[in-house]
Design a protein that fits this description.
This protein has about 400 residues and is α/β, with parallel strands linked by helices. About 40% of the residues lie in helices and about 20% in strands. It contains 13 helices and 15 strands. Strand 3, helix 3 and strand 4 form a beta-alpha-beta unit. The protein is elongated and about 100 Å long. The N and C termini lie far apart (about 95 Å).
Length: about 400
């Protein structure tokens, strides 16, 4: 019998038949037609090879030892992981009920003795489905590889970020702070450090967006801030240098809102710059707001030198007072309007005592009300005037 032309798609065909002569005849026919044959002697071996070889088509004899074709087909369908692999029974059975049962799992029957031209025609009819399956497998493999690469990059980014943050001072009785990310990476960061003269510097930065892209925006600020603080440089120079750094390497739409704070403990004087963040609150011992320091400058990357120089604010932090800093993620919990969110924060702090305010704000963040959650990164900083001289003596 003349063989049909070789197909444009070569199939991997799993053949399960306990008849050795029948298996070899099918193998020879398929390989002459450009396909690859995978041979099994019974249903159990066919199931094992299906798992390891991932064939495009399965041909199963019905009557086989250890596991018959019907049971092998049922288990193959269970192991298909959502993809349909074409399956044909090879059978000389003329029992109509058995054939109907088999069609529960199979795409059809090829009667024995096998007519090879009919078999090849049936295989050709499966080309489109098999091509789709192969595309799906390729897409799955590409997706898994991309996911693996992303996880590796995420792990590296998390490691680098943790090492950078570990170089700053941890929260203490003077400066209490928390950063709560909306995803694994935070576009918010709080850095707290003492200069060689034991002056206190705090940076609260809130990059546009959240996640890894936002975290990349604040990365350049870490080294600038920490190195300049450790040299004891003035707040104005630090802000200008951070702004110039972002202008040099970041697109204009990747700005960073920030509050930079400098405290001179002997005089309790505070120098503050607020670029695009919510107002800094000065509270007295009764939790009453004595002063608000609103943003007087655009965020870093959008500001220029003159804007920065004309937006420095000063105050004195008495022992009975607290300074409260937070990013807009706290204000916008539940996607509230900014004015409403700020009012609720002020209500939360009203009447509070020194030493309780940080916990009150954290509780407000974690339990903002029924159905309300933070959808952005959140930063909270509380500076306690009562601890100022105590902290700098340590």
């Amino acid at each position: 019998m003349p063989m049909p032309p070789r197909p444009t798609v070569s199939l991997r065909v799993l053949i399960a038949d306990d008849n050795n002569f029948g298996r070899l005849m099918l193998k020879e026919c398929l390989e002459k037609s450009g396909h690859h044959a995978i041979l099994a002697e019974d249903g159990q071996q066919a199931l094992e090879l299906f798992e390891t070889e991932h064939p495009d088509v399965v041909l199963l004899d019905v009557v086989m030892p250890r596991m018959d074709g019907f049971e092998a087909a049922r288990r193959i369908r269970q192991h298909s992981r959502g993809q349909h692999t074409p399956l044909l029974f090879l059978s000389a059975l003329d029992d109509q009920a058995s054939k109907i049962e088999g069609l529960t799992y199979a795409d059809g029957y090829i009667e024995k003795p096998i007519q090879f031209d009919m078999l090849l025609a049936r295989l050709n009819s499966f080309f489109r489905q098999i091509h789709i399956n192969r595309q799906l497998n390729q897409q799955k493999m590409a997706s898994e590889a991309a996911l693996q690469q992303l996880e590796e990059e995420t792990e590296m980014g998390a490691y680098v970020l943790s090492r950078i943050l570990a170089s700053a001072r941890a929260p203490d009785d003077l400066v209490q702070y928390l950063v709560s990310p909306a995803s694994r990476f935070s576009g918010d960061v709080v850095l707290y450090e003492h200069s060689p003269q034991q002056e206190i510097y705090i940076l609260l930065a809130d990059a546009v967006g959240h996640g890894i892209s936002a975290a990349l925006n604040v990365f350049p600020l870490f080294q600038v801030f920490m190195s300049m603080v450790r040299k004891g440089l003035p707040l104005l120079e630090i802000v200008e240098e951070m702004n110039q750094t972002l202008c040099a390497i970041m697109p204009v739409d990747r700005f960073v809102s920030a509050i930079v704070l400098h405290i001179h403990p002997p005089t309790r004087s505070v120098t503050l710059w607020n670029g695009g963040c919510p107002p800094v609150l000065l509270l007295d011992e009764h939790g009453t707001i004595q002063r608000q320091m609103p943003p007087e400058c655009p965020p870093l990357r959008l500001a220029d030198r003159e804007m920065i120089r004309h937006s420095i604010q000063t105050l004195t932090l008495e022992a009975s007072q607290n300074l409260i800093l937070f990013s807009d993620g706290l204000v916008e919990i539940g996607r509230r309007p900014a004015s409403e969110g700020l009012s609720l924060i002020q209500q939360t702090l009203h009447g509070s005592r020194d030493g309780t305010r940080f916990d009150k704000l954290v509780n407000y963040l974690q339990a903002p009300g029924e159905g309300l959650t933070a959808h952005d990164d959140v930063s909270i900083v509380v500076v306690r005037g009562a601890q100022l001289n105590l902290s700098t003596k340590c």
